[in-house]
């Protein structure tokens, strides 16, 4: 019930701006329903008129009085009603498609805009596929339900009410006969739906698992090939696939049975109506022609009456899926936005220093990762963070850029707490090169000028030269216009990182955060990265997470982290002289170099 309420609120929020269109569709629906329920009356009248004509014509006494005019008149009326009805339905389906298209579009845009305001925490704690499915299956379900379901719901309810009114007006006895089977029909329908739903849910779960498996196998293809596990991979796939097939089949058996069952019930009902109608014709006090007309009317009503019941029950699953979709999209929409203080302070340029002051932090309230660390960096200095995996190096970077907020202490730029700063101003002054550099689809040029779209070609070349990647780009057939998704231009991790470095140089940040790439870098590229890093770091305030210690020998300060604590601090020579953790790390690495 809660889901229903929330879902209704969600749809109202998007549909309220189409009030006029919806009102128009409702009026058309009512007109079309009226025409639909009136048509059997004209059909009945036509039959009555035809029967009267035949009766008169067969009797020699009344032979000359027989006229087909009434019959033709009734037929014409019926034809007009059908025509009007068809036009009304066509127009309303056009309006509905338009409203559905625009409102699901608005949902998609809203969802995407919301994602751009979300915290990094959200992306860290949700799988990509999970976020993506809001845009795909959830929005698809909503689109289908709105396009086919929501207005059909209204038109079917209107149709049902209309038919009931007309039936009771024509003949209360036959009306009761027609509706008598309703409770048992609804019970059967709900029983079948519940059964089908169980398997539809199972099918969705199995499809989700299959997709997850395929995703995992594609990502891990390298490991599978290296270890010769292709056969195992296919066998597991077949198992998952078979489970999907079984669940789909059973679900289809139940949901596929629903329609024929409803049709069957409708036919039985029609037969009962014919039986009672004929009884009335033979034993009642109305003329045979009138009774025949009445039977024709009710035969059609009993079929029409079952149509909304069948459609409403078969729509149940579709509407349920749309409600689930609405809930899942709403979950994203109510997620907290990234906090940006009102009237936050803007910084022009870093003037003196950046400070982490007794910083405590944990991603979860019950597990602290950083236990009170303090680091001071003067303008223009390079600080290197080293330490074993999981010691908290990336976490420090996350706090500098305010991806997360500290739980104790503070991070300050020129004495101003980052929580008091305008977040865009802060990020404008911080440039980050991540370990796994991301290239967006487009050309190399697009990727380099990403953060500064108005950069001139000269500025772009200078940045690329500084990043030591200009010559490589020029050696490509299309140079800076090479598409990054081209099969012939698959970039290595190192090359991607150099392009990211060029992208960052172009934005000329005050503080540079560099997470050195660790894997898949050949020695030539490594040397180039080293040179690029030296270039980019020169004269800039920078934090570098270093995995190869020889890249940070010139650092002004090396901070050694272990289990979220600073265990050593100083420059390379001081730390070597201390002969502690750093010295051991350095000597070990040198053995392998
Ligand atoms: N988004 C997150 N949510 C919860 N815990 C996290 C998250 N990111 C990191 N952690 C945890 O915080 C601790 C420190 O991780 P962090 O990534 O800062 O280490 P690191 O020193 O950068 O390691 P590496 O050298 O392997 O990159 C680890 O125990 C890790 O499990």
UniProtKB/TrEMBL annotation:
It is found in: Cell membrane. It is a multi-pass membrane protein. Residues 354-588 form the ABC transporter domain. One of its GO terms (molecular function) is ATP binding. SUPFAM superfamilies: ABC transporter transmembrane region, P-loop containing nucleoside triphosphate hydrolases. The chain crosses the membrane at residues 20-37, 74-97, 150-168, 174-193, 264-282. Residues 23-321 form the ABC transmembrane type-1 domain. PROSITE patterns: ABC_TM1F, ABC_TRANSPORTER_2. Its main location: membrane. Keywords: ATP-binding, Membrane, Nucleotide-binding, Transmembrane, Transmembrane helix. PANTHER family: ATP-BINDING CASSETTE SUB-FAMILY B MEMBER 10, MITOCHONDRIAL, ATP-DEPENDENT PERMEASE MDL1, MITOCHONDRIAL. This is ABC transporter ATP-binding protein. It comes from Periweissella fabaria.
